[in-house]
Amino acid sequence: MASIVSIMLTATCLLLMVKSVRPLRCCSLLHHNSHRFSVTSKTSPISATSNSDEISSSPTSVSQQQHHNIFQGHRTKMGKRLRKREDKETNNARVRNSYLKLSLDETAFNSLHQLIRTMKEQWDSGENELQHISKKQSKRQLTIKPRTLPSLHMTYFFCGRVLDEMPCDELNLWNAMVCERLLEYNDATSSAEEYNVQFKGLKLFPPNKHYLVVAMFEPSSMLYGLYEELCKLALSKKPSYHQDSETSNESEYLFPLLAELTKSQHDKRKQNKSSLPSWVAHVTLGNLSGGNRDDVKRLNSWLEDYNKYQASEMIHELNAINVKGLALGGPVPSHVDVDWEYSLHPKE
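-> structure tokens emitted (348 positions)
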């Protein structure tokens, strides 16, 4: 009997010990973590005080930084959504490249935006009348997705992502040379009307691929000549360059990255044996989605009739659009402070 009582007392003591040990372990961990925090804070007292001052002086700085890391980051879902929404509403829609664009009157872009929306409505209504399809089939049919009005532009000289990688001295020199060349053209031009583009109609683009709806334009000879001059500037060679130079890594071009990009574009045209000129004046109005090759061919032939009858009034309205100048579109280099707008107003 005594042995049974002793066993019960021993078990009770063990249970009490287990209950008392658990809170002790938690307390010891808290004490251990607080000790670690105190050690790290003592190692850098200056940084700790400065950070505390910043937090106390701007209590919203931490929340703003967290908001920036979460919503502006390109790796998060919310960041991708916000960037996609911002790209659709700005001139950088779906574009991560820089380019020199022609500065046209806003009324021209308003007319073109209204034209693509009207054209889409007529195409969709015609498709719905031709064939009665279900909702699942409608997702696979050929649809036209118009671009937003702020995203419409006419690319003149493509720069890609080269401008962000060019050194400051090269960017400043290239900008100065472009300004100088435009001044020469302005002096040799008698009237500002010599810089103009003429609307020719809607077309599927690019050739043999046909996934864009663009407005085609016929530029004046002065714009063609100025474009060739910009290409020559990009391929300018150093006056003091020698092929037997001691520094073998030295480039013979004043702007190596820009020259490499320009040469690669010229090489692509030669490989594709394109009959188009080096610069095709156009404004991308919309993208094609869904459909098959037969649908694209049918849309291409439908556009020919649309240009003859429906878009003829717009072609007459946009007969000669004067170009005000050039401007930089897409991402602007942040490591230089220069004016990226070039005027095309000759002295009269």
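The longest helix spans residues 2-43.
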